Structures
1.
Amino acid sequence: MRNILLFVLFLLAVFYVRRALRGGPRREEGGDSAPEQPASQAPVGEIEQMVACAHCGVHVPESEGVTSGGRFFCSEEHRRLGARP
Ligand SMILES: [Zn+2]
């Protein structure tokens, strides 16, 4: 019984240490999350280019659309349907 208690305490200790190790850097990132987040995604202030869909003509942010054969489409379905004059 004592061994089980020690084992549980050990697991709790491991859990807290792991959480502390993971929480530490996360808290540091949280302080300057504003410059950190856009670096991995889109830079702040840089307006994403809007591209017209070759099928329906709707302007969609470049990252949200699909490019195929040098043409840009707003969705996977319109890419499948192909370009329309
Ligand atoms: Zn479209």
2.
Amino acid sequence: MYQIDTQCVHSSRCPKAAYGSLTTPIFQSATFAHEGLDIASEYSYSRLQNPTRAALENRIAELEGGLDAIAFSSGMAAETTLMNLFESQGHIIAGDDLYGGTLRLFRHISTPAGLRFDFTDTTVLENIRNRLQHDTKAIYVETPSNPTMQVTDIAAVAEIAHTAGALLIVDNTFLSPFFQRPLELGADIVVHSGTKYLGGHNDTLSGFLVMKEQRISDQLRYHAKTVGACLAPFDCFLLERGIKTLAIRLEKQAANAAKIANWLQQRPEVRKVYYIGFPDHPGYAISQRQCSGFGGMLSMELDAPETARRILREVKLFQYAESLGGVDSLITYPMCQTHADVPEEERLKRGINDRFLRISVGIENAADLIEDLRQALEKKQ
Ligand SMILES: Cc1ncc(COP(=O)(O)O)c(C=O)c1O
């Protein structure tokens, strides 16, 4: 088995393409003809499967150390399809610091459909144990979480889940398989917004579910072909192209993020930096065990709402935009973007206030990025 940076470029699970083509051809076909009545071709209809998508799914499964992966048109499409696995019955324990769209799905779509959710701080294992019920079907965590960068111990939660007969589902969007492989730590299903680090260029949406058990894979493929939110062939091509540079992008993004986090920490306008690479981060010891790098994400709490607004107004390299993980550095105002739908009281309890900004560090020069933040912070009114 090759190392992950080699796997990003050469997936051993992708068959050689025709004519020795190094890239997987874009099979832009909705349907596939069969040679005869009893001679079915390998593919039949692109909602079920498509050769370009199959190559991408093989690559993702290999990177995550899974048996199978399914590619969806967005991360939310993947999560919505995933919820069908529970057939509207049972109980799920979920982290309380999740991406706002995931919270919206769980609260406003899956709950009215019949699932029961308990949201809790999953960094505290006792919180999870105390919430287990006779019909707990899954524990759902994001680690690090979005946007306050809480770290949950995947192996420990997997043990709790399995003892209770539940599945552990981990959203691995923030670190990607380059830095963290939850299936190897005991998780049963990995979720991705492939829009982020996997795609890496802010040019397409995508989502993935990665499974390690045949039974779960069969069930999810059944739901995937029924829901039909599959990733289009051209977007599969973009994802595959993005993944080839995942390793070098993430190394640069992580190195840049460490420099920016350290610099921000020295600034008088910055009250707190949320970054998992700080030795005093509560999850630091767990991160050292369960991931091989600290990623390119950080958040910060500023001294005043005006400082947050000044940064958003004055930055030139950083773009004020939702999303994360791409080559361009972005700043997000979670309160009015990614987490706008989270009830105010809950948002404030987690520190997501009008002084809180999230940064997705790109691959630009770190000194230029720091200079951009400095000039924005020091800009006179
Ligand atoms: C951690 C996380 N999971 C899932 C999603 C949803 O993904 P998508 O926007 O591709 O639907 C996002 C989107 O920001 C996210 O940040």
